[in-house]
Design a protein that fits this description.
The chain is mainly α and about 160 residues long. About 80% of the residues lie in helices and about 0% in strands. It has helices at about 1-20, 30-45, 50-85, 95-120, 125-155. The two termini are about 35 Å apart.
Length: about 160
């Protein structure tokens, strides 16, 4: 059960990072800021946090997001190296160290996520932490669906 939860958390973290890392128009930054503000407002309401609790929670969340972003950048760099190896028809043994690097980074991401979540126990109650996990899953799904819908509107008639 713990392995399934850990994999789900890693998957959601990666999905979130992939969505955030998508390049686009210059005004996209404002769009991401609005999404983050919506996320914050919904979390404050859902978790029924007091002001001090909210400040502590979002400070910790911001720190976690920063670490996660750094790890995603490292992972992207490793994947860029794999892409270069593919383009250059590299020998099979050249891939192994980069594969190991990606696995190591994935492990660090999972460890960081667990550390962040466990560290919330001094800020949020058990029920609030449970609501937070369920909220993240639901919010990620809604975000992905909104992107799919936007893509369908931009490119009607194309299969996604």
């Amino acid at each position: 059960m713990a392995t399934i939860v850990a994999r789900l958390i890693l998957f959601l973290s990666i999905c979130c990072a992939v969505v955030v890392a998508q390049p686009g128009r210059p005004d996209d930054q404002r769009g991401w800021e609005r999404i983050e503000q919506l996320r914050k407002v919904r979390l404050i309401e859902l978790l029924d946090m007091k002001e001090e609790q909210s400040v502590r929670f979002f400070t910790r969340l911001k720190e976690h997001d920063g670490i996660r972003h750094q790890l995603m950048q490292q992972r992207d760099q490793a994947l860029d190296r794999i892409e270069q190896l593919l383009k250059s028809n590299a020998a099979p043994e050249e891939y192994a160290p980069v594969f190991q690097e990606v696995n190591t980074i994935d492990g660090k991401m999972l460890t960081e996520r667990g550390k962040f979540f466990d560290g919330l126990s001094d800020i949020l109650s058990v029920e609030q932490r449970a609501k937070f996990l369920v909220f993240e899953r639901k919010f990620e799904r809604e975000l992905r669906e909104a992107f799919r819908e936007a893509q369908r509107r931009r490119h009607p008639g194309e299969e996604q």
